[in-house]
Structures are given as C-alpha cells and as structure tokens.
Amino acid sequence: MVYHLNFIKLWPTIGNLINYENYGKLSGIKLNKSKTEAMWKGRNKYSTYKIADIFWPSKPIKALGLYFGNNPKQTTRLYWSTQIQRCGEHIQKWSKRQLTIYGKIQVIITYILPKFNYLFNSLVVPKSFLNQINSVLYINFFGIINLEKLKG
C-alpha cells in the first residue's frame, strides 16, 4: 500500500481523527503494518517524520509493477532498464533457435510485447528507452544493424 502524505503540520490533527484500529473494526479492513510502506512526496520528501509503525524506505517503492520515488530519473531508469534487460535475455534464448521471420514475429507478439504492455499503458515512454527496445529487437533478434534502411 502506498501513501502520499504532504501535510506534516496537519498530520497530528488528522492522525487523531483517523485511528487505524478503530477504522479496521468499523470497516473490516485492517492495515497490515508489516507489509505497508510509506513515503513522503513533494516538498516534504526529505522529512524524517514517521507516522504509525510502518516502514519508511529511502529507496523507491515498487507497487503494481511500477516504482514510486522522489527521483524521477531513477524510477524511470529502474522500470525501463529492468524490462529491457529481461527482454534482451528472453531474445537471447529464442535467437539460438533457427526461427523463420514469422516465428520471430510470433515470439515478439507472444512473449516480448506483453512485458511492455502495462508500462506502455501506464507511463510515458522516454525516446532513449524506445530506441533501446528497438535496438534489442532489431539488432539482437533480426540481425538488422542499420535501422535507417528499415525505415526508408
């Protein structure tokens, strides 16, 4: 569970109003403090103020396959570079086989693109990472070195 708390000054007041244990008794939903991570966002991102007995990591938090953190470049690099690396490993496994062009396209459609679908729908794709994905697919899998000839 990821919380975005921006109001250090207001939190003691809000904390008195929201008692997690009473909330759990009324709603039937109990906060699992051993699995919950929280992080300050915005201008309070360097705050050391901790609320409740939950974990407050300094590194980005991964939730629903995406990283959330205070350094946008770091989080962008985390999810795109890990997926590109996994894609490259997957392609290396399949490139050892003598596949036809149709077989290679089928591998991309079946195994490679689904790894990126969620990210493509959830995030903006930086051009540099899009170029890396293209190079992994075309150079490593299809053996095409000059991508400009392919476009023309």
Description:
The chain is mainly alpha-helical. The protein has two domains: 4-58, no CATH class; 63-151, no CATH class. The protein is 54% helix and 7% strand. It contains six helices and four strands. The chain has helices spanning 11-17, 20-27, 72-95, 101-122, 127-142, 147-151; strands spanning 4-5, 39-40, 61-63, 66-68. A hairpin with a 2-residue loop joins strand 3 (61-63) and strand 4. Helix 3 (72-95) runs antiparallel to helix 4. The N and C termini lie far apart (48 Å).
Kindly list the characteristics that best describe this protein:
mainly alpha, 2 domains, two-stranded parallel ribbon, two-stranded antiparallel sheet, 4 strands, 54% helix
Concise account of the structure shown:
The protein is built from 6 helices and 4 strands. It has 152 residues and is mostly helical. Strand 3 and strand 4 form a beta hairpin.
Q: Which secondary structure elements does this structure contain, and how are they paired or packed?
A:
Layout: E1 4-5, H1 11-17, H2 20-27, E2 39-40, E3 61-63, E4 66-68, H3 72-95, H4 101-122, H5 127-142, H6 147-151
Parallel strand pairs: 1-2
Antiparallel strand pairs: 3-4
| Weakly predicted, low-confidence segments | 1-10
Biggest sheet: strands, sense, closure?
Answer: 2 strands, parallel
Distance between the termini: 48 Å
Radius of gyration: 22 Å
Structural class assignment: mainly alpha
Count of folded domains? 2
Q: In order across it, which strands form the biggest sheet?
A: 1-2
* Pattern of helices and strands: EHHEEEHHHH
> How many H/I helices?
6
The portion of residues forming beta strands comes to 5-15%
Number of strands: 4
Outline type: elongated
Please bin the fraction of helical residues. 40-55%
